Task: structure prediction
Amino acid sequence: MINNEEFQDEIGNNHISTSAKNPLREDAFAISDEEKIERIKKDVENILITLGMDLTDDSMKGTPNRVAKMFVKEIFGGLNPTRKPKASTFDNNYKYGEMLVEKNITLYSTCEHHLLPIIGRAHVAYISNGRVIGLSKMNRIVEYYSKRPQVQERLTMQIVQELQMALGTEDVACVIDAKHLCVNSRGISDIESSTVTSEFGGKFKDVQTRREFLDYIKLETKF
Result:
């Protein structure tokens, strides 16, 4: 019979998500970023000391503070809703009615199972029903939802849902192709494999529209 620790390891090692939303506690923002940095700094110090590192060395003495600031303000900065980009939209005055594709958006995220990097590309598309969004905002939405402990399936869905809400249309699609260092650098250590996830809404559920999108991004994957 599998015990609880083995069950948790099974979920993590197989990269299984248990929630469609990032599992945040209700008091996630009860303390300031500065307080979080101080707490994390002490925890990082303890980890490094436990590993046997000499934190009096000039190269190491600033590491706990650097890591703490990086966690709070950079790689997990997307957890904080105050950092959510304003998804400004505009009237589609030029009446462009075809698919708009923003491809090869650089993506850096972090696997929530091992806290190792996820590195890849996101390809996002939408068909306007009267509103358009600035191109850079699409990149910023990808970045915002990437900067948190993630699973790739959830990230793909969150990008599509955010754009659907901003644009007022279901006609949004996203494909992510990414390498997970928890697969590439540990465990099975398969350096060649990557993971592809997709979310298709509205007209993108139509086979022909979906095929057009995939042809634009030149992804040799069958869905």
Q: What stands out?
A: The chain is about 40% helix and 20% strand. The radius of gyration is 20 Å.
